[in-house]
Amino acid sequence: MRATTIHAPFDMRVEDVPDPVIQEPTDVVLRVLRACICGSDLWAYRGESARQPGQRIGHEFLGIVEAAGSEVAGFAAGDLVVAPFVWSDGTCEYCAEGLQTSCPRGGFWGSVGSDGGQGEAVRVPYADGTLVKLPAEAAGDDRLLTALLALSDVLGTGHHAALGAGVTKGSTVAVVGDGAVGLCGVLAAKRLGAERIIALGRHTARTDIARAFGATDVVAERGEAAEAAVRELTGGQGAHGVIEAVGTEQSMRTAVAIARDGGSIGYVGVPHGSGTGLDLSVMFDRNIALRGGVAPVRAYIPELLPDVLSGAVDPSPVFDLTVGLDGVPSGYRAMDERTALKVLVKP
């Protein structure tokens, strides 16, 4: 089969690799129908996170089960399924608690020795604990299939951020970051009943999506100017909840500064750069809570799936460029140069 591999910073290739096969009786082999490029993939692309030459990449995908191991109970050949961005056994204490990202037998797609989602097929370990079945008819609906792909990461991650930010009905929420996760944070906050949603972003194409997703206000400034603008919009108090979807020192400083006293920050931006921007004494004095981390999206898919199927929640607009498998390297360039928000891949 063919799959995307990374060989060095800015050196992405689509190459012939061995076809995946059942290795354990709990495996399935999945033919990929839709995949995409994540903003976090760019850290490997830019050389800011280490990869071995030839390592696979991609952690967001859905597809059709081609073959199932002898111990797989929940899936059979022909099933349409979505894969969360980590696999998990579904039986450990962490999985039972809804924290599949801490499963001792779990792992990330594209890690050394595993398949990545940006290819024609994937071997899925612990299929019963990992995959979620989708309605078969969705395979013939291009828009719905694209919306369902967001369940593999960005929609669940936005939901995780909104929960960490303590979003409740009638609350005021600010969202730091106008990437796909930040935009899905807007969507999640709206779904949870936020009355006012302030999106921080400078790119009109992205803030237009934010408004369509439920943002009531847009702040284009950065740094202290952004802090002042949010304070002005909230009568000087700040937001009850802040979603931090960037991961830099500056973004975290902004999140703390625009949070209301007694408010909460839900952080899901992958930390990178110098420091976190946290001043615990400020957070202590103002009773600001911090909660977030790697989103256990497998725990959220059953809750979010019905709304995506009904059209009540439609994250598909975050995908603004579509490529075939051969176009994946150019897709990385487009996202790195910020000419694309999130690239959809159709193998």
UniProtKB/TrEMBL annotation:
<keyword id="KW-0862">Zinc</keyword>
<keyword id="KW-0479">Metal-binding</keyword>
<dbReference type="InterPro" id="IPR013149">
    <property type="entry name" value="ADH-like_C"/>
</dbReference>
<dbReference type="Pfam" id="PF00107">
    <property type="entry name" value="ADH_zinc_N"/>
</dbReference>
<dbReference type="GO" id="GO:0046872">
    <property type="term" value="F:metal ion binding"/>
</dbReference>
<dbReference type="Pfam" id="PF08240">
    <property type="entry name" value="ADH_N"/>
</dbReference>
<dbReference type="InterPro" id="IPR036291">
    <property type="entry name" value="NAD(P)-bd_dom_sf"/>
</dbReference>
<feature type="domain" description="Alcohol dehydrogenase-like N-terminal">
    <location>
        <begin position="25"/>
        <end position="135"/>
    </location>
</feature>
<dbReference type="InterPro" id="IPR013154">
    <property type="entry name" value="ADH-like_N"/>
</dbReference>
<feature type="domain" description="Alcohol dehydrogenase-like C-terminal">
    <location>
        <begin position="180"/>
        <end position="305"/>
    </location>
</feature>
<dbReference type="InterPro" id="IPR011032">
    <property type="entry name" value="GroES-like_sf"/>
</dbReference>
<protein>
    <submittedName>
        <fullName>Zinc-dependent alcohol dehydrogenase family protein</fullName>
    </submittedName>
</protein>
